[in-house]
Task: inverse folding
């Protein structure tokens, strides 16, 4: 009989090998990065543009431009674009985030030649038909109405606004913002932002020389460039510890979100803070989950995150908890933060989190796309692969003393902004 | 093409191995052939609650998660109406830890009272978070019993009501474990940087001495053929009206399922699809519309859900949906349009092969349906569907007497 009380031997992860993206330059100077890996005959090509010229009076300008890219060019109608892309079994995904707007193509390699002309058309000759803009506005205004009924959405909006004010990170979108979009704004933004001087391309999957030369022939020329843009830049002050409560008397659960401005990925303390965050609320066995879900049963889930943006970093804790235990949850969160500021993390827990994070990092390198994602996180923060070498070193070596001092340096419960939607 | 080896232990545990040397990781996916459809109608939500209890410690190991995280692993699970599926990903060098943990909880749980008490609360909060405290969150709680009068698909995996979960007792937990959690009722798939010979050795070592248990023979009431349209009007504090139409479609194992799935794609996959183009873009009657299949082991549902634009009456909106549906029954779908959705299926299948976990889960699911090899025949089953098949299938699905309609209307 085997002795089931004894755990099998295990090894700590020693080797973590990243497939590094290799840089190329297109004829017009666009940076192209390649992650050529994998068995499958497919490719993902991502066009990334920085968000520029933020104007609080036109808060949805960048978003709407991105959303309407695929809705018509001077040669192709919205339907023709989607019908032809769908016919090749390809997928396109316009994506808008706080710092970047992107446009991604997923296709089987065998259809690349057929699909690229359509992509070129979208990125260089979009016309933003008024009818399509009207449809976007109508649909999005109704979606907004529904979203505002969700406590977690309201909480996230209020929290971001409390940290970032009327910047692109914090602006509270209201229905009127949609009405203020007009076609001229979109054409202006398209010309400014979607052009070679503001573009980076990342190609992953089966990316052979043929693919590279195709990308160059379509996007390395005949795409007019300009310097008529200013990359968004913001500065934020420390949070003051305000409490923002939106009462929803019929709620069964309250959504809570609390946190503060912190450092971003470029700061030397960032990897250590990610470790500290993991201990608190970054994995299933975290202290918040162990206490608030697995011991008390107050919630289905609670977590924390150390987020990095171009102009700021921030730290947050979020959950949806039974309305009757909202105050108790806040008290437990405060207790957990203070515990990390006053007591050393026990050796056993420290080693567990270390191994967990290394395993999780290894597991996040599943395929060519994931290696491309790893590159994206550093490149878009202005970092290089040394970041990961240092990250892994910090995870392997950080001590309980280091973590105690990070908690004291960065986490102050009384300075967290605290947002609650539902009942207190 | 997902290659695999298969062996069965003496106690009846089926093990599949998918060697994938391109990753340093391993996946251990354990499927138990039990889902919400196997529940007692007065104790619904139990299979899913039980899934939570599987993490509350086993006979010899007080915590499941902790030792796994210590070796760099992660895990999770889900319960559907058909199956309960547990999965672990971890560095392949530490594969044995997953065997140790997974085998001990198949042998026996610790049945801790504290775990039951806490997980009842956690699941009640999950019920509130996902179904009760969200606009339109309770749609499936209303639509399922409308569409199913006999078959246990009439309730969602979370259960019919909070009370069923609050009332779960330890003796029920023990009986459920005995009935469903044993080698003969499980399928294990191990994938990644592993070798079949090593997996076989580890499987024998850790699972070999677990008593085989009794094979659970499912004997569920069949859903009678629906003869009349059904309709429910529900008013709630939501900002916008919504329409849900549920239509009976064939089971996953039936070729008719693949026809229905392609019909769903023709209707709502991508911006060139019929419902999207006709009702959102051209006629502007809706702001959002989708068609999806429940994709279940027993005969399932196609669900059309849409939100009409402001000022559009619910009658006008509903009639417009039926016009689009009827067109598929009345006119053959053009070959180019059918090829389009097939091409999309083909590329989706290739992209899906990039994820080790997805491959392992799919192998396990097709194995419980009858044969894991069916995973590799799926593309073929889609490709052989003809335009006539589509029209015939559409004629059988898109009949009013095959439909259950939920009008979810705004109080304001």
Result:
């Amino acid at each position: 009989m085997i002795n089931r009380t004894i755990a099998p031997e295990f090894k700590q992860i020693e080797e973590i090998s990243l497939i590094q993206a290799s840089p190329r330059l297109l004829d017009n100077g666009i940076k192209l990065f390649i992650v050529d890996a994998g068995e499958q005959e497919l490719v993902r090509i991502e066009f990334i543009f920085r968000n520029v010229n933020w104007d609080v009076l036109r808060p949805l300008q960048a978003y709407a431009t991105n959303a309407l890219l695929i809705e018509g060019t001077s040669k192709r109608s919205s339907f023709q674009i989607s019908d032809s892309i769908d016919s090749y079994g390809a997928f396109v995904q316009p994506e808008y985030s706080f710092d970047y707007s992107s446009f991604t193509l997923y296709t089987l390699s065998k259809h690349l030649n057929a699909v690229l002309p359509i992509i070129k058309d979208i990125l260089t000759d979009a016309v933003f038909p008024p009818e399509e803009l009207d449809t976007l506005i109508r649909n999005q205004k109704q979606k907004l109405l529904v979203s505002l009924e969700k406590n977690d959405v309201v909480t996230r909006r209020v929290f971001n606004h409390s940290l970032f004010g009327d910047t692109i990170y914090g602006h509270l979108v209201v229905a009127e913002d949609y009405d203020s979009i007009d076609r001229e704004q979109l054409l202006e933004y398209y010309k400014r932002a979607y052009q070679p001087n503001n573009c980076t391309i990342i190609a992953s999957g089966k990316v052979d020389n043929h693919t590279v030369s195709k990308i160059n022939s379509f996007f390395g020329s005949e795409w007019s460039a300009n310097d008529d843009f200013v990359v968004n830049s913001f500065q934020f002050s420390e949070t003051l510890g305000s409490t923002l409560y939106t009462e929803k008397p019929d709620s069964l659960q309250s959504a809570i979100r609390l946190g503060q401005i912190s450092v971003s990925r470029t700061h030397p303390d960032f990897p250590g803070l990610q470790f500290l965050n993991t201990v608190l609320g970054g994995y299933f066995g975290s202290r918040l989950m162990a206490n608030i879900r697995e011991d008390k049963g107050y919630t289905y889930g609670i977590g924390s995150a150390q987020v990095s943006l171009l102009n700021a970093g921030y730290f947050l804790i979020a959950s949806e908890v039974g309305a009757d235990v909202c105050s108790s949850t806040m008290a437990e969160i405060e207790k957990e933060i203070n515990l990390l500021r006053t007591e050393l993390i026990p050796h056993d827990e420290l080693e567990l989190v270390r191994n967990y994070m290394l395993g999780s990092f290894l597991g996040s390198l599943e395929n060519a796309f994931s290696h491309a994602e790893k590159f994206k996180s550093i490149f878009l923060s202005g970092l290089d692969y040394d970041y990961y070498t240092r990250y892994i070193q910090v995870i392997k070596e950080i001590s309980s003393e280091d973590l105690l001092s990070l908690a004291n340096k960065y986490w102050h419960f009384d300075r967290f902004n605290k947002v609650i939607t539902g009942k207190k | 093409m997902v290659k695999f080896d298969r062996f069965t232990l003496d106690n009846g545990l089926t093990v599949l191995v998918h060697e994938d040397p391109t990753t340093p990781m391993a996946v251990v996916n354990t499927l138990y052939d039990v889902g919400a459809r196997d529940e007692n109608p007065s104790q619904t939500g139990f299979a899913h609650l039980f899934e939570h209890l599987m993490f509350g410690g086993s006979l010899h190991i007080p915590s499941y998660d902790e030792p796994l995280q210590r070796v760099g692993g992660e895990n999770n699970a889900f319960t559907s109406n058909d199956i309960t599926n547990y999965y672990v990903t971890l560095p392949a060098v530490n594969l044995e830890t997953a065997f140790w943990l997974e085998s001990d909880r198949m042998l026996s749980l610790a049945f801790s009272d504290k775990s039951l008490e806490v997980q009842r609360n956690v699941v009640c909060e999950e019920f509130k978070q996902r179904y009760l405290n969200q606009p339109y969150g309770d749609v499936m709680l209303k639509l399922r019993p409308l569409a199913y009068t006999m078959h246990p698909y009439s309730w969602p995996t979370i259960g019919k009501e909070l009370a069923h979960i609050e009332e779960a007792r330890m003796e029920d937990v023990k009986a459920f474990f005995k009935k469903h959690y044993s080698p003969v009722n499980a399928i294990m798939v191990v994938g990644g940087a592993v070798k079949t010979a090593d997996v076989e050795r580890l499987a024998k070592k850790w699972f070999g001495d677990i008593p085989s248990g009794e094979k659970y023979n499912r004997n569920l009431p069949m859903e009678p053929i629906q003869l009349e349209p059904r309709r429910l009007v529900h008013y709630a504090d939501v900002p916008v009206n919504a329409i849900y139409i549920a239509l009976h479609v064939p089971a996953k194992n039936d070729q008719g399922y693949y026809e229905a799935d392609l019909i769903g794609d023709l209707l709502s996959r991508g911006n060139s699809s019929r419902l999207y183009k006709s009702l959102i873009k051209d006629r502007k009657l809706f702001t959002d519309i989708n068609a999806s299949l429940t994709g279940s082991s027993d005969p399932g549902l196609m669900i059309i859900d849409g939100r009409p634009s402001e000022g559009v009456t619910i009658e006008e909106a509903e009639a417009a949906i039926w016009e689009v549906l009827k067109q598929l029954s009345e006119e053959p779908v053009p070959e180019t349009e059918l090829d389009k959705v097939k091409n999309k299926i083909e590329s989706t299948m290739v992209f899906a092969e990039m994820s080790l976990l997805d491959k392992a889960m799919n192998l396990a699911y097709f194995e419980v349906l009858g044969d894991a090899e069916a995973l590799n025949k799926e593309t073929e089953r889609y490709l052989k569907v003809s335009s006539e098949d589509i029209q015939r299938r559409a004629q059988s699905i898109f009949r009013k007497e095959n439909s259950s309609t939920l009008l979810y209307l705004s109080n304001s």
User: Anything to note?
Assistant: Residues 5-208 of chain B form a domain with the Cytochrome Bc1 Complex; Chain A, domain 1 fold (CATH 3.30.830.10). Chain B is about 40% helix and 20% strand. Chain B has two domains: 5-208, 230-410. The first strand of chain B starts at residue 5 and ends at 8.
